[in-house]
Amino acid sequence: MGSRQKKQNYFANALVAFLLLSAVCLLPSLARGQTIPDKMVASVTNGARATPDLITYSDLVWQLALEPGRQLSDPPSSADLNHALRLLEDQILILQEARKLPSADTPEANATRDKEVEIRRNELAQAFGGAERLRERMTRVGLTSEQLDLILRDRVTVDQYLDFRFRAFAIVTLKEVQDRYNQTHGRQRNSGRIVPTLEEVRSRIERDLTEEKIEGEIDKFIDDLREQAGTEIVVLSPV
Question: Which domain holds residue 18?
């Protein structure tokens, strides 16, 4: 694609995103219960659809609010907002890939996702110390129960797609297990400590290596998505 065409696509997507969000919604202030104008922050497309997906300021705040252990500031810092923006950009790119699968929107797939959303909601409540504390957190940032379910549904879709694409292909060899065992436990021999045998820790080492491989493949996959032809991430309002 020529540079002129890329520039035309860039500004076309920016214009589409602006027009789609020309109606301004309101976002409650974290501490005072006041309202501030929501704004469109970025648009993301992999070129598969005419209309890009949008990321708003409220999306960023909700992302931060749903991270257990994170202290909410009013307003959020630029570093926190950019952290949330990067996560949401990556998620949307993966979602756009997941939508290409014929099985992504079948009744069976939707039913499975609905069940998983309920599980994720319960897990999230536990992470915040209970359903009431989660509701308080949501109220602070104007996040409704219906909006939470949509966010969790997207997260489930992303995780299911990544499992489908990478987990079955993450093979750990016996040599890799042996090498990790020697790295982590070999130095403890003759130290007077009780050193577990390879068989005692083999399943844990295999699990750790598998997750590391999957994480590495996912990171590479996301980098490739960002660089592939057709992908355009347009930041319309820097945070």
Answer: 3-235
